[in-house]
Amino acid sequence: NAALWGKTSQSSICSGSVPELALDGLLNSWTHTDSETDPWWRVDLLKVYRVNRVTITNRPNNGSRINGAVISIGNFPDIYSNTVCAVISTLADGATDTFSCGGMEGRYVIVHIPGDQKILSLSEVGVYG
C-alpha cells in the first residue's frame, strides 16, 4: 500500500477524526470532515506512482457519508485538476470495494464529495501500483 508512506490531509477535521486514521489499519476508526462544500481527503504519495487500484473501506456506521465520492489521481494537490479514476455511488457500512485505475499516474490520490453540506468519512484507504 503506497499510501502508507505518504502524507495525508483533509479539508477539515471533525471531533478529532484526523486524516491519518484512513491508514491506521483499524476498522473501528475513521476520518471525518465537518459538513461543508466539497469535502476532501488526500494522500500525497511523495513521488509519482502508476496506480492500478484503490481500495476504500467504509466506516461501520453512518456509511452514507461516502456515497457520491469521487476518486481522482494526478500531480495536482487540488480536488478538480486530476483525472477521475472512479465514483463511489454507494458502499455499505463496513464494506470494502476495489476501484480499478488502470495504471493512472500521479503523486496525489484524492477522495472528495462534490456538493454543499456534505460530510466525508473514510475508514481505510489503499493505493496499489
Automatic annotation (TrEMBL):
GO biological process: regulation of cellular defense response; regulation of complement activation, lectin pathway
This protein's record includes keyword Calcium: yes
InterPro entries for the chain: BG_Antigen-Binding_Lectin, FA58C, FTP1, Galactose-bd-like_sf
Family listed: Belongs to the fucolectin family.
UniProt-listed PANTHER family: FTP DOMAIN-CONTAINING PROTEIN, FUCOLECTIN TACHYLECTIN-4 PENTRAXIN-1 DOMAIN-CONTAINING PROTEIN
Subunit description: Homotrimer.
The protein's role, per its UniProt record: Acts as a defensive agent. Recognizes blood group fucosylated oligosaccharides including A, B, H and Lewis B-type antigens. Does not recognize Lewis A antigen and has low affinity for monovalent haptens.
Name of the protein in question: F5/8 type C domain-containing protein
